[in-house]
């Protein structure tokens, strides 16, 4: 006898989150971003608090499950935990943040997603305002990662995916009139959409943007498009309107207000009518990043009022170039991810605005919204403050590169797969239909690092048909087949030259360059010079604005975490720390450097040095909005300072000459003419007096302290007239030299030198030859020098004494070491003579080093060539004349001006989120470092040439080992490096190494440093 059986399956259906046929269900089509108001006055406030708007942000009940199939029933919700919306659940104690650059952190089987799919269930109660009775009620989620179902009073309303795009649902039929209602959302960490959301950022989940209710009457405006049209002479224009209504055409009114609020034109009639509004004469103003002039439109239908800021711009291709308002602009941009160190992609408005004001103050004129549509407030701010925006679709599938290492192979998974065409087009539609009324957007981008396939062709065609007024970008389309420009990431200067030589039909931008990881990038000035001298290259956008560290506490210590710090695996470690600002958005030295290099005014000396050549790099503005001032900086003399207006008009793109305002023949020492340009009046992004641009012009003169490099001349800085007897004694392998209050010790075996004065230690090690520095993140990058230096064991180099002799020359005692400074393991090294000279003058020491590198494994480039000294830790007061006040390196120094500066040792240190080499100050004429407790100050200079220094209380080896700033151990000494040469920074994490002129080549060296107590 046999029992009957049946076959069962689980779950018995294709889940929405793994179904390419279901991207949205019962969702309102994508529309322009707007809020409804009950009056024109309320609409003109542009305030959500005045809108017909009910925020559902705040505390929600929350349950976290490992799978959608483990999620609990809604009737248990009131007993759940509480979570804050908007926010990510990983930042509120559920799951953990996970960082990857490329890898998918889940099994790859598109479009399928594992049933082990962490799920967050959200629930809250809400009430519909009585004044909304009789209207359609919608709930709008501005951003949910990655996909979700929506329920009202336990009934399913709909479904949506597309993590960084909004979703809106009409929930009217699900409401219980006159009662409290409940809203719930089942949010899935992964969906088939996750395969298209593999951006270089943290994987974070949940309802991370605003949630709110809006009412729509039966007869209402549902959507609108306002398109600017500019006449060929750029002196007039008109706005055309395309308005979509529900409940019949009704009577629509439209009102156009000037920037000052004056009424310019009105319309009243059918929404389907031909609505245009003309502006000309003195009322007509173009919008640009330099002149962000906005008009206001108020739309009205019945009791519904909508306000929209609009502007006139014209974006077009003329020949190969992109023109904005008739001019071939240069993009001085930055890539911006949405990130906050506390809340991830939930970015508070105040923080967003502060960032954008900082960008504007840093002369940045363009932002790529990488790599997904940003919060709606971002685009309002870009319109208001003045930024050219590249708005990018929420589309990246870089992780397929792990499976197919060819571009073609990787493209077949989704980009060249017709099963995914609908998903690709959906992301284009969500981007354009939502944001097309924003005047700041000049370029649509099809996404990032999704390879290239037919689905991009479909996106390109749809966008151009829908919005022919803007250009389209997509970097992986290297032949610019379905894009209006050529675009590259991280090219070398040679790559750029090759590009514009071979491809001249379209302009060229760098959508990512100058990878701003840690201490760097170097070489920015060379890139910007390319932008300004090659018409086909219309600029670039630095990667990126800020580090993505998340504040984290471990064992009572707070720090900014990166990949792996949460136990996330696989991960890409610190690769997420690659911004111009720290994780807390404090500017790093690189931001000041970038701001200087892209400044809109440049001043150079004429060939005969009698004229200042003032170049205006603005595309539209003259310099009448700026005040100019100048002052003289020189070493050892009185400084002149005055302010003078610019008595000439400098039109956009023009250069004028102005006489140098000082007689150079009166200068008896090196001098620099510093010229500054500051805002005359307050702006929305900076107060009057904010310095927009500055330059420093070198006026020739003898360098203070300059002398021949021969040992006999020692130094031209003043020695005391007080001669003293120099006595020498030898005890075993050590020589002791007594000169007045100073005692010097020379170790004949190890080469170590000590110096005490009146019993106070100045240094107990050095000065000795030193060629190493801690690695920067760029050194450790894909093409960085760290690999070569590690292979050459540069970090292990030690001094070996080969011979020592000494003599009294009559006016000084000389101790001459013949040394070999070499690494472990290998046979290369530096062979050198080091001559220490103690003059018959109290409290002075000169160090002359002359040598060369020998051996088969000698690296071509070294981190530095100079001297290392361990000073007493009480030497803390630092002063110098050279570039400052901030750190600077050979290829990153334009922002740091010549002058006299002072600092403590601690203040010289730059605390990068990831510890690394930092704190160098270059092109010094002199350095003084004082011990206030002992009343001692040590003066250091180098013969004939400027030098650089670092002073810190952390060793290079500790910097290399540390993973976070709190790992650093402060030493009870001041480590002083005096360098004749330092290697540049480059941007080799994903870009070029330092350019040739900034490399510290291993070769013959010959330099002399002079140390003296003053």
UniProtKB/TrEMBL annotation:
> What's one GO BP annotation on this UniProt entry?
lactose catabolic process
Keyword Hydrolase recorded: yes
Record keywords: Glycosidase, Hydrolase
> Which InterPro entries has this protein been placed in?
B-gal_small/dom_5, Bact_Beta-galactosidase, Beta-gal/glucu_dom_sf, Gal_mutarotase_sf_dom, Galactose-bd-like_sf, GH, GH-type_carb-bd, Glyco_hydro_2
Q: Recorded E.C. number(s)? A: 3.2.1.23
Say which domain of life the source belongs to: Eukaryota
In this chain the Beta galactosidase small chain/ domain maps to 736-1012
Q: Which Gene3D superfamilies match?
A: 2.70.98.10, Galactose-binding domain-like, Glycosidases, Immunoglobulins
Molecular function (GO) terms for this protein are: beta-galactosidase activity; carbohydrate binding
Q: Which reaction does it catalyse?
A: Hydrolysis of terminal non-reducing beta-D-galactose residues in beta-D-galactosides
Q: Which residues form a coiled coil?
A: none
GO CC, sorted alphabetically, is: beta-galactosidase complex
Q: What class of enzyme is it?
A: hydrolase
Family as reported in the entry's similarity comment = Belongs to the glycosyl hydrolase 2 family.
**Any idea what this protein is called?**
beta-galactosidase
Q: Which organism is it from?
A: Cladosporium halotolerans
């Amino acid at each position: 006898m046999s029992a009957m059986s049946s076959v069962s399956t689980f779950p018995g259906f294709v889940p929405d989150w793994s179904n390419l046929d279901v991207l949205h269900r019962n969702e309102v089509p994508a529309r322009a971003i707007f809020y409804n108001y009950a009056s024109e006055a309320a609409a003109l406030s542009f305030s959500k608090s005045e809108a017909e708007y009910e925020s559902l942000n705040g505390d929600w009940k929350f349950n976290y499950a490992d799978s959608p199939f483990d999620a609990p029933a809604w009737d248990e919700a009131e007993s759940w935990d509480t979570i804050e919306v908007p926010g990510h659940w990983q930042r509120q104690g559920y799951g953990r943040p996970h960082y990857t650059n490329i890898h998918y952190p889940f099994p790859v089987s598109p479009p399928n997603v594992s049933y082990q799919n962490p799920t967050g269930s959200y629930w809250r109660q809400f009430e519909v305002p009585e004044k909304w009775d009789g209207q359609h009620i919608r709930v709008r989620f501005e951003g949910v990662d990655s996909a979700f179902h929506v329920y009202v009073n336990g009934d399913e309303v709909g479904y949506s995916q597309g993590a960084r795009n909004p979703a809106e649902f009409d929930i009217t039929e699900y409401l219980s009139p006159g009662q409290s209602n409940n809203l719930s959302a089942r949010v899935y960490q992964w969906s088939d959409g996750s395969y298209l959301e593999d951006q270089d950022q943290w994987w974070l989940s949940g309802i991370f943007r605003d949630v709110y209710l809006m009412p729509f009457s039966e007869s209402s405006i549902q959507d609108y498009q306002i398109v600017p049209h500019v006449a060929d002479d750029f002196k007039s224009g008109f706005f055309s309107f395309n308005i979509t209504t529900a409940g019949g055409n009704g009577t629509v009114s439209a009102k156009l207000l000037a920037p000052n609020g004056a009424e310019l034109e009105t319309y009243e009639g059918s929404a389907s009518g031909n609505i245009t509004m003309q502006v000309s004469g003195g009322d007509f103003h173009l919008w640009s990043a330099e002149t962000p002039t906005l008009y206001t439109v108020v739309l009205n239908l019945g009791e519904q009022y909508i306000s929209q800021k609009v502007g006139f711009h014209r974006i077009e291709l003329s020949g190969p170039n992109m023109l904005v308002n008739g001019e071939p602009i240069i993009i001085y941009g930055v890539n911006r991810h949405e990130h906050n160190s506390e809340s991830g992609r939930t970015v508070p408005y105040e923080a967003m605005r502060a960032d954008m004001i900082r960008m504007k103050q840093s002369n940045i004129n363009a932002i790529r919204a990488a790599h997904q549509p940003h919060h709606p407030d971002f685009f309002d701010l870009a319109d208001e403050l003045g930024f050219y925006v590249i708005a990018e679709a929420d589309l990246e599938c870089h992780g397929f590169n792990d499976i197919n290492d060819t571009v073609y192979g990787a493209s077949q998974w989704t980009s060249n797969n017709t099963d995914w065409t609908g998903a690709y087009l959906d992301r284009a539609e969500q981007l354009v239909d939502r944001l097309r009324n924003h005047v700041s957007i000049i370029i649509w981008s099809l996404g990032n690092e999704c390879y290239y396939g037919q689905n991009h062709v479909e996106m390109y065609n749809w966008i151009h048909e829908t919005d022919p007024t803007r250009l389209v970008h997509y970097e992986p389309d290297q032949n610019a087949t379905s894009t209006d420009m050529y675009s590259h990431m991280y090219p070398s200067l040679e790559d750029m030259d090759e590009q514009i030589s071979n491809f001249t039909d379209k302009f060229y931008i760098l959508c990512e360059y100058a990878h701003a990881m840690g201490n760097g990038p170097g070489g920015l000035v060379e890139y910007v010079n390319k932008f300004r001298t090659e018409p086909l290259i219309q600029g670039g956008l630095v990667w990126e604005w800020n580090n993505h560290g998340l504040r984290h506490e471990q064992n009572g210590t707070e720090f900014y975490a990166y990949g792996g710090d949460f136990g996330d695996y696989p991960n890409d470690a610190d690769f997420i720390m690659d911004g111009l600002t720290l994780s807390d958005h404090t500017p790093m030295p690189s931001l000041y450097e970038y701001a200087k290099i892209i400044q809109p005014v440049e001043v150079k000396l004429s060939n005969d040095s009698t004229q200042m050549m003032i170049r205006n790099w603005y595309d539209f503005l003259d310099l009448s909005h700026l005040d100019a001032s100048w002052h003289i900086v020189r070493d050892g003399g009185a400084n002149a300072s005055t302010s003078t207006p610019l008595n000439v008009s400098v039109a956009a793109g023009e250069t004028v000459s102005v006489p140098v305002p000082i007689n150079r023949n009166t200068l008896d020492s090196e001098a620099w003419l510093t010229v500054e340009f500051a805002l005359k009046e307050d702006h929305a992004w900076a107060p009057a007096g904010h310095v927009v641009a500055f330059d420093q012009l070198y006026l020739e003169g003898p360098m203070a302290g300059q002398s021949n490099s021969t040992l006999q001349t020692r130094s031209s800085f003043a020695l005391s007239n007080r001669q003293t007897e120099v006595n020498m004694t030898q005890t075993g392998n050590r020589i002791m030299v007594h000169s007045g209050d100073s005692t010097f010790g020379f170790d004949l075996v190890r080469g170590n030198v000590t110096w005490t004065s009146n019993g106070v230690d100045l240094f107990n090690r050095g000065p000795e030859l030193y060629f190493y520095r801690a690695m920067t993140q760029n050194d450790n990058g894909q093409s960085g020098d760290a690999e070569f230096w590690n292979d050459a064991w540069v970090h292990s180099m030690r001094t070996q004494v080969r011979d020592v002799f000494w003599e009294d020359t009559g006016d000084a005692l000389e101790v001459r070491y013949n040394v070999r400074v070499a690494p472990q393991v290998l046979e290369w090294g530096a062979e050198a003579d080091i001559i220490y000279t103690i003059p018959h003058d109290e409290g002075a020491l000169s160090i002359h080093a002359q040598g060369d590198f020998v051996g088969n494994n000698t690296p071509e480039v070294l981190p530095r060539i100079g001297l290392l000294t361990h000073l007493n830790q009480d030497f803390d007061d630092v002063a110098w004349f050279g570039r400052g006040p901030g750190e600077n390196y050979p290829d990153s120094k334009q922002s740091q001006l010549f002058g006299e500066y002072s600092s403590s040792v601690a203040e010289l240190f730059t605390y990068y989120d990831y510890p690394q080499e930092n704190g160098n100050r270059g092109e010094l004429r002199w350095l003084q470092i004082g011990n206030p407790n002992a009343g001692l100050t040590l003066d250091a200079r180098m013969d004939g040439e400027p030098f650089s220094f670092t002073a810190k209380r952390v060793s290079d080896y500790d910097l290399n080992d540390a993973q976070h700033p709190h790992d650093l151990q402060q030493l009870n000494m001041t480590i002083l490096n005096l360098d004749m040469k330092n290697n540049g920074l480059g941007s080799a994490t994903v870009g070029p190494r330092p350019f040739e002129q900034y490399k510290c080549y291993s070769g013959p060296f010959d330099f002399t440093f002079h140390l003296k107590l003053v």
